[in-house]
Amino acid sequence: MARNGELGEFLKSRRARLRPEDAGVPSYGTRRRVPGLRREELAQLAGVSVAYYIRLEQGTADGVSAEVLDAVARALRLNGDERAHLHRLAHPPRRTPGGGPPRLRAPLQHLLDSITHAPAYVVGHHTNVVAWNRLTAAVFVDLASVPADERTWSHQIHLNDDYKARLGANWPTVAARNAAYLRFRSAQDPDDPGLRAVIDCLRERSPEFHRMWSAHHVADLTHGEARIDHPEVGRLVLRYETLHLPGDPDLSRLMLYAAEPGSPSEAALRTLAETSTCRSSADLADPRTAAPG
């Protein structure tokens, strides 16, 4: 059984966005009472009985096969991230919870500190920033001044007005992308209390996040572009890439940013590297919590 009706809500949201003409379903000029496809139409496209599909939308996924889920995904025209999300909602993974806060190997911090002309940081499984270099703090948020329990990108994006101002007109895109990523993660680790605490906090404190969360969009973070209106050096346009850390199960990924060579953004990063007094996580580290290399 999928927990909390999330399977049914996801299916309904994806069905509502699919126009009959896009799915090749004739409407015969009749006025439709619901947006998107009817359940009967979706069931026919997926090749399952209406009663069976209704049970799925009611959250009953006991015994549903991967083949049926794939057929429903094709009928709903889900992308790769959405298809994986559907499978995880139907068959939630069971993971052993970690034994405390994530531990950072000393070489990872050394790697971050060696990157002096671009932002770089390590995040945990609920967007918590575990370690960062000085340019991360200078470009985005001075994380050393943020309370430890709010040191997540999700908190900063949705609740930090100063960071919202730096994101400027790009904030709605970044915020929606973050909500979609948290949806993606919530199906990967449904029992993660840290992830649930972040989501619950944002739903309570941010009406915008609550609306974005209710849209049920799903997407992983792999690569993309960041645009920052920096108060000291002006507009920064940076490309980012994510690197997974398979040898560190308590950590999620290493995020690396770079400006186009010879661009004004590259010059601005160099200026910040030379003038900023922001601290990296190494400046706050307690040697008793650092993991050996």
From TrEMBL:
Segments for region (Disordered): 272-293
Domain HTH cro/C1-type span(s) in chain numbering: 36-83
Matches recorded under InterPro entries: Cro/C1-type_HTH, Lambda_DNA-bd_dom_sf, MLTR_LBD
PROSITE patterns referenced in this protein's UniProt entry, alphabetically: HTH_CROC1
SMART domains noted in UniProt: HTH_XRE (SM00530)
Record-linked PANTHER family: BLL4672 PROTEIN, BLL4672 PROTEIN-RELATED
Protein name: Helix-turn-helix transcriptional regulator
